[in-house]
Design a protein that fits this description.
The protein is an alpha/beta fold and about 290 residues long. The protein contains nine helices and seven strands; from the N terminus they run E-H-E-H-E-H-E-H-E-H-E-H-E-H-H-H. A seven-stranded mixed β-sheet has the order 3-2-1-4-6-5-7, sandwiched between helices. Strand 1, helix 1 and strand 2 form a beta-alpha-beta unit.
């Protein structure tokens, strides 16, 4: 029989954590709540609901919370992560673990958008989600429909592949990129989600930008041809635009203004070539 552990990273989730523990326990040998420095009764409520509680004395971020949980549950066959705020449905845990039990996946990502059916996502969130999905897919070289999902299942063989570097946001994208770099098999299954719960107190724009910057940082090392290529292409486009605008204006005889356009064009070309060269060297090293 497969031993399954469920991890619930939690921060000030006393309202929802008990129901998530009780519902998850039906599908797991052990439910572990990682209380990341909560100021409320999250730990107390989770213990009363039957969970194993691992507590940080201060809030250290989701990445550190997951590292604590994975270190504790490393001997289980499958580890499931699920948000403690109640937005996911624990009854869908069997859907996530099945591809791993069948031997066809190392990691299963729960997706709201796998078949395009989910329409309740607020528009501003969906726009941001699309940007983060695109950036994550470019950085990882894989194609997923819900890169920021916190509802996932991991085989025991995948655990050693993760560094859990980001202390704040971005851990979801980080794990996908690291999994891809280690040639792990990743698949998606459709899951439901509810938005009538308070999922975060952080500004969604600030949170999204934080994740995006982290993805770009990883893309610079893992997919340099995209990182430098896209940036170089944009600069090249504006350089050509500047040069053509000056050439067709009353300033066309001003050699210094024309030189600005040429310089920007050359800068774009150099950046693109840097990306191509870095990508080639990376492939050569591997």
């Amino acid at each position: 029989m497969t031993d399954v552990a469920v991890l619930l990273p939690a921060y000030n989730e006393e309202v929802s954590v008990a129901s998530m523990v009780i519902l998850s326990s039906k599908y797991a040998k052990e439910v572990i709540v990682i209380d990341d420095g909560s100021a409320d009764r999250t730990s107390e409520v989770a213990k009363l609901a039957g969970a194993t509680v691992l507590r940080h004395s201060t809030n250290r971020g989701k990445g550190v919370a997951l590292k604590t949980g994975f270190d504790y549950a490393k001997d289980f066959d499958i580890i499931v992560t699920i948000d403690a705020d109640g937005q996911h449905n624990p009854s869908e845990i069997p859907l996530l673990i099945k591809p791993i039990e069948d031997g066809v996946a190392d990691i299963v990502n729960g997706s709201r958008y796998l078949y395009g059916h989910e329409t309740s996502t607020p528009k501003f969130r969906r726009v941001g989600q699309t940007v983060l999905d695109t950036a994550t897919n470019m950085a990882s070289g894989i194609k997923l429909t819900d890169s920021q999902s916190g509802f996932r299942a991991f085989s025991s063989k995948s655990i050693d592949c993760f560094n859990f570097d980001p202390e704040g946001f971005g851990i979801e994208s980080d794990m996908l990129i690291e999994a891809s770099n280690n040639n792990l098999r990743i698949t998606e299954v459709e899951v439901s989600v509810r938005y009538d719960v308070n999922t975060t107190t952080d500004n969604p724009f600030v949170q999204g930008m934080s994740v995006l910057l982290r993805i770009f940082e990883l893309m610079r090392f893992n997919r340099p041809i995209y990182f430098y290529g896209v940036g170089g292409a944009i600069i090249l486009f504006f350089g050509i635009l500047i040069y053509l605008t000056i050439s067709n204006s009353v300033y066309s005889t001003n050699i210094y203004l024309s030189a600005v356009g040429i310089f920007v064009v050359l800068m774009g070309v150099v950046i693109i070539l840097s990306g191509v060269l870095t990508d080639y060297l990376n492939r050569f090293k591997h």
